[in-house]
Amino acid sequence: MGWSSLLELGRPMLASYHKSALQPKKQQICYLTNLLRENARSQFGRDHSFSDIMTLDAFQANVPISAYQDLKPYIDQIIAGDHTALTSDPTIMFELTGGSSGGQKHIPFNTRLLSDFQRSILPWFSDFLTHYPKIMSGRAYFAISPVMQTQSDVGGLPVGLPSDAAYFGAEAASHIADVSVYSPSLSDPERWSIATAAWLAATHDLTLISVWSPTFLTGILDTITQNPDQVAKAIHDGDFGIPVNPEQAKLVEHGPSHLWPDLTIVSTWADASSAPFFSDLQSRLPDIYLQPKGLLATEGVFTFPLCDAANPVPALHSAFLEFEDEHRKIFTVDALSKGETYDLIVTNTGGFYRYRIGDRVQCTGYYNGSDLPMLKFMGRSGQTVDLVGEKLTEDFVLSCMHDLGFPCILIPRYDHPCRYDIGIDANVTPRPDIAEQIDECLKTNPQYAYARAIGQLARPQVIQYTDLLDRYIAFRLTQGHRLSDIKVPVLLKPGVDSYDIWGKGKELQTC
Question: pTM for the whole thing?
């Protein structure tokens, strides 16, 4: 059972995917046609004449590209009790994710959307198990969803699934449980960090690690290397429910290659803001295949990796995908140009129709000479910062800074752990609790709260700079911007706008 059952569950889905990959547009049109037919009786379907749509052009004419706020009236109807406002298949639960101006968005889920998750996740499993059968000789550690839920229900519907394994479906979830390392629950973050590191260090037959951000795993590795005595003691004494294993405890000081001699694959984010952390992880695990993850968001699966593909491929069976270039021209999956970057627009069975997901992808080529593009994640659209999965937007940060009474800028820091500095002018005398106040407001974004709780992000620090705003404007002028076009942001992006480049060494004090 276990691995072999997961391989067999995903095998027909993988074969179906490879068949669809030969004619990706045909598969996508079929997916869209079925979706429109199935949801014609929903409120959204009636409002947008789904029953009259017979072509892709008609779909694009009848349904405008949307943002969350455009769909929110329908989501409010679901919360009020109309569970078929967006889809004919009733909404059964919500997931929470970070919002732009508020702390969070409510993402509706139904059984069809969960099935679409599985139609990409299980083929991914089958693919890597086929290419690396050694994985089936050991166990895996999975950390799938980075959100720590703070609500139990919304409008009478549950928030979140019972466990991460539920994304795989009931049958697969039992097999996942058979091969998974125990994952301690998050209550006391410090205790969780040691417990998780100890459980993994105690797992001599670990063959697969799947996490979202590379910083999640480097944090665990740091816990092992920085607290070897505590980790070894936990394994030796059987703390946290770990089976007593004195021999394994002796290996803690020798590092990952001795702890996990059969570790074969680490699956994690690799691109955009995660790229430097992915490289760091590669240097720590030089003999392990690090597989870049595809685009798996709260709203759905949009790309997934194949072992023989240089970059992830579109999730043809899990969403209808449109691609918008810099000239606002829309393309289907088979019509992308190598080297071009596109904003991703998705339609899913959970009720998000032509939804601008906020991710940008680049076509890096075509898979095995077919019409199936390979897609590299290039980052978030607009002013969004995502060091470790927190997805902070400028609108949201602005709402947290609104009542301070003086200008300040949130500055991302690639540190260990990452953090945000709160830059203020040297002439301002800040209240002593300003960092705590802003931190608490930022925690209303559930991804940020989770990253803070498990130590991926350190607490923000207040740092004062001489002539803060004037220096920012002067920097932008040196980059060729006109004075009339310069708007001082409240959230800097990593890279050219970072104080690491244009403001380093000018700090006066840290509060």
Answer: 0.84
Contact 231, 196 (CB under 8 A): no
Report the pLDDT value the prediction gives residue 143, as an integer from 0 to 100. 83
Rounded Cα–Cα distance for residues 135 and 4 (Å): 10
**What integer is the mean pLDDT of 344-358?**
97
Domain edges within the chain:
319-380, 384-510
Whole-angstrom Cα distance, residue 325 to residue 8? 39
- CA dist 254 and 436 (Å) reads 39
- Taking the C-alpha atoms of residue 8 and residue 311, their distance in angstroms, rounded to an integer, is 24
383: pLDDT strictly greater than 70: no
- Assigned fold of 384-510: GMP Synthetase; Chain A, domain 3 (3.30.300)
CA distance 207 to 290: 12
Residues 34-84 have pLDDT tens digits of 999 999 999 999 999 999 999 999 999 999 999 999 999 999 999 999 999
Tell the residue number behind the tokens 């097999």, with chain if given. 175
Tokens describing residue 473:
């404007």
Q: Is the pLDDT of residue 107 over 90?
A: yes
How far apart CA 216 and CA 74 sit, in angstroms, is: 35
Cis peptide before 312 (omega within 30 of 0): no
Question: Which tokens go with 136?
Answer: 């089936």
SS3 of residue 463 by DSSP:
strand
Which residue matches tokens 């910062």?
385
H-helix or E-strand containing 473? helix 468-478
491: closest CA among 100, 70, 116? 100
CA pair distance 219, 453, nearest whole angstrom = 12
Q: How far is CA 319 from CA 146, 207, 333, 380, in A?
A: 22, 31, 11, 19
**Residue 47 CA: distances (Å) to CA of 39, 40, 42:** 11, 9, 9
